[in-house]
Design goal:
This protein has six helices and twelve strands. By secondary structure, the chain is of the alpha/beta class. The protein folds into two domains: 195 residues, Vaccinia Virus protein VP39 (Rossmann fold), CATH 3.40.50.150; 54 residues, no CATH class. Helix 5 links the parallel strand 4 and strand 5. The structure holds S-adenosylmethionine.
């Protein structure tokens, strides 16, 4: 998904030398916007700064590294099954933090079985939790998240929707740093809502990394997810919808909403509060 644009210098430009995590971070993921949203939303509601974060499906743990940078009492747990992105994140984001690095704990574990101290904020970003394709499994995950939160804790996910999300597509986007990011979505199964998505990268020398990342997901609706969160025990689940600039494009500002137009493709946050 061409979710968030981040302009970052990528120094190696061929399929044989580029690192796929560096390319991913250079094109797909900008955790700064997520980070600001988390702090602001929690602080507005709870009138205190959130200090502890669990970043599920953390990949390179970029959000966790950001979390511990601006406040000495913050701590983050970054959970991912795959040792490769964790190792890339450790070397490139956590170790460079110096003394602050000890406040990021990486856990190579399944989000369904990991045990962590209760946290203020728990996140599942870039739609990663859509790997749970059965309602019972999603409910199981949300219940475990509920248990992993402090009483005044907040769980935040992002999601995409609109008719465009249900159509096959191949969307290339040229990055300033000299490579092309391509988001490919295969046809959605009308009965199961299963989709297979891929990220490919293409370079100026004509080389290509085919299927650098593949995601096998169910397309969930916001209404379904809200219901499952409420069934898991959350006291309140709020939708945060993106505002538009004067050209009708998303402006990056997300506000609480109760109704919204089903635009062709949209991205939103769901914020679930353990207690009111
Ligand atoms: C789309 S990436 C997300 C990376 C990062 N959080 C981001 O927002 O860009 C999905 C990550 O989820 C991890 N993952 C998939 N299933 C998992 C599970 N059950 N438990 C923990 N991590 C899992 C994968 O290894 C992969 O690194």
């Amino acid at each position: 998904m061409a979710r968030k644009r981040k302009k970052k210098k990528v120094s190696r430009f061929t399929a044989t030398t580029a690192n796929r995590f560096e390319l991913y971070e250079g094109s797909v993921y900008d955790p700064e916007a997520d980070h600001d949203f988390l702090i602001k939303t929690f602080q507005n509601r709870r009138k205190r700064r959130p200090l502890t974060l669990r970043e599920d499906f953390a990949g390179t743990s970029l959000l966790s590294s950001l979390w511990v940078q601006n406040h000495g009492l913050t701590k983050a747990w970054a959970v991912d099954l795959d040792p490769d992105p964790l190792a890339y994140g450790k070397a490139n984001h956590i170790e460079p933090l110096g003394d602050k690095a000890e406040r990021v704990v990486q856990l190579e574990e399944n989000v369904l079985s990991v045990q962590t101290p209760q946290v203020d904020v728990l996140t599942a970003f870039n739609f990663s939790y859509w790997i749970f394709e059965q309602r019972s499994l999603m409910l199981d995950y949300f219940r475990k998240v509920f248990e992993a939160l402090e009483d005044d804790g907040m769980f935040v996910v992002d999601l995409m929707g609109g008719p465009g999300v249900q159509q096959p597509c191949e969307e290339p986007r040229e990055e300033d740093s000299g490579f092309t990011y391509i988001w490919e979505q295969e046809a959605m199964d009308a009965i199961t809502h299963h989709i297979d998505c891929h990220i490919h990268f293409e370079f100026e020398d004509g080389t290509r990394i085919e299927k650098a990342f593949t995601y096998n997901w169910r397309v969930w609706s916001m209404a379904e997810l809200r219901d499952i969160m409420l069934d898991a025990g959350f006291a309140e689940v709020d939708a945060y919808w993106e505002g538009a600039d004067k050209h009708g494009e998303g402006n990056g500002v997300f506000k609480k909403a109760t109704n919204a137009e089903n635009e062709d493709t949209w991205i939103a946050y769901l914020v679930a509060w353990k207690q009111k």
